[in-house]
TrEMBL record:
It comes from Rhodovulum kholense. Residues 10-71 form the HTH asnC-type domain. The keyword Protein biosynthesis does not apply. It comes from the Bacteria. Gene3D superfamilies: 3.30.70.920, Winged helix-like DNA-binding domain superfamily/Winged helix DNA-binding domain. The keyword Transcription applies. Keywords: DNA-binding, Transcription, Transcription regulation. This is AsnC family transcriptional regulator. One of its GO terms (biological process) is regulation of DNA-templated transcription. PANTHER family: DNA-BINDING TRANSCRIPTIONAL ACTIVATOR DECR, LEUCINE-RESPONSIVE REGULATORY PROTEIN. One of its GO terms (cellular component) is cytosol. InterPro entries: ArsR-like_HTH (IPR011991), AsnC-type_HTH_dom (IPR000485), Dimeric_a/b-barrel (IPR011008), Tscrpt_reg_AsnC-like (IPR019888), Tscrpt_reg_AsnC/Lrp_C (IPR019887), Tscrpt_reg_HTH_AsnC-type_CS (IPR019885), WH-like_DNA-bd_sf (IPR036388), WH_DNA-bd_sf (IPR036390).
Length: 158
């Protein structure tokens, strides 16, 4: 069943609940209800409805990349001369099978794709890069090493 968030209108209470869940989804329903000024059952029902509508896509934890030896972040800019459906399908498959790729975006402009890749170090990036170009032909790849993560969040303003 496809989710359609446009059909679910968020009111002020929904937004407060989303704010609390984004801050810490491990809070108990009692804690969330107290903080948003409601009771447990209405909060649970609203969370369930927002899940069903696709407003809440998933609940997860955020792990420190260094704890899993993924402390090095590269942004990979990709230009391609290939725009056929078969190439795009193979490229997508290559990205999906690479756990190092945390984000991938198709762009407007001179760069076709940007990837956010987390690895242990430059040598691990090279292993990733070699695997990627063996899976699919790429015209130009530029890797930019993130020297410092200044801001990283998954929290959307509510």
């Amino acid at each position: 069943m496809a989710h359609d968030q446009t059909q679910h209108r968020l009111d002020a209470l929904d937004r407060r609940i989303l704010g609390e869940l984004q801050a810490d989804s491990g809070q108990s329903l009692d804690e969330i209800a107290r903080k948003v000024g409601s009771s447990k059952t209405p909060v649970w029902n609203r969370i369930r409805k927002m899940r069903e509508a696709g407003v809440i896509r998933q609940q997860t934890v955020i792990v420190d990349p260094k704890a899993l030896d993924r402390g090095t972040c590269f942004f990979v800019l990709i230009r391609t001369s290939e725009h056929e459906a078969d190439w795009q399908r193979r490229f997508l498959q290559a990205l999906l099978k690479r756990p190092e790729v945390l984000e991938a975006h198709r762009l407007a402009g001179e760069i076709d794709y940007i990837l956010k890749v987390r690895v242990a170090d430059a040598a691990a990036y090279d292993v990733f890069y070699q695997a990627l170009i063996s899976d699919v032909r790429i015209f130009n790849v530029t890797a930019l090493l993130s020297m410092e993560e200044i801001k990283a969040t998954t929290v959307l303003p509510v």
